[in-house]
Amino acid sequence: MDKNGKIKKRYNRIAKYFDSFQKPMGTSGFDKWRKELVQQVNGKTLEIGVGTGKNLPLYSKDIRLTAIDFSKNMLDKAMTKYKKSLSNVNFLEMDVQNMDFEDDTFDTVITSCVFCSVPDPVKGLKEIKRVLKPDGQLVMLEHVRSNGKVLGTLMDWFNFIPLIIMGANINRKTKQNLIKAGFVNIKETYLWKDIVKYFYVKNEK
């Protein structure tokens, strides 16, 4: 089984427990940061890695939202919770690294704590750039590797633990990956130390 298949299998396995895993993140500020992030979206919007649907109740009802996840079990849980009550959401099982959408489809793409687990983050970001309209926006809430010499090294050393358990990396260099994917107009906002950040990215084509 390749890396992509292994990570998908892990998320399918933990889908039933995922909401419980996320509860501590809410008390640490992530719920507030998610709300602020979702307020930035406009137009035809794509949420990458919707998971069990944590962000879905936060969207304005006039947002045309497509929500994708590569884990069938995670997506099924989101659909069970929200498909009837949120008629503006189109749920699709899809991998950000290989999306079926045409070029220049979306005004906004949003991610929250997703690119820690995408097997090939640069490939996924290139796909986002492709499906975003010219001057469209990518808004991200992500945790990344610290630039601190000691803390960054520790994150590298212990990365194998969350990677084995959930397929998530704690040492991703997301800004560098955005640059590698071809994005130029990148704004960072620090939320907690230099580890949790917003990224606001304009798609210049």
UniProtKB/TrEMBL annotation:
Pfam families: Methyltransf_11. Residues 46-140 form the Methyltransferase type domain. Gene3D superfamilies: Vaccinia Virus protein VP39. GO terms for molecular function: S-adenosylmethionine-dependent methyltransferase activity. It comes from the Bacteria. InterPro entries: Methyltransf_11 (IPR013216), SAM-dependent_MTases_sf (IPR029063), Thiol_S-MT (IPR052356). Coiled coil: none annotated. Keywords: Methyltransferase, Transferase. GO terms for biological process: methylation. This is Methyltransferase type 11. It comes from Yeosuana aromativorans.
